Amino acid sequence: AYSNSNYQILAELVARQNRTTFPNHMQVSFFAPLGMRRTWVDAPLEQRPGTARAYVPASAEGEWREAPRLS
What we know:
mainly alpha
C-alpha cells in the first residue's frame, strides 16, 4: 500500500548508507550527472512558517509531543 512514511524511511536509509543527506545524495548521484539543473529534493532542516508539524503520542495519558525529524 502507498504510504508517505515509507518514502521517509527510504530517504533515511539512503542517507545513512551513503553518509550524507538524502538531498545531497540525489543531487550528486542523479541530478547533476543527468544534467537536471532545475531538479532538487526539498527537505528543509527548519520548520517553515505556516506548515504543519507532525506529532506522536508522548504518554498513555493522551499527551502528545512533536515528532522528531528524520534528517
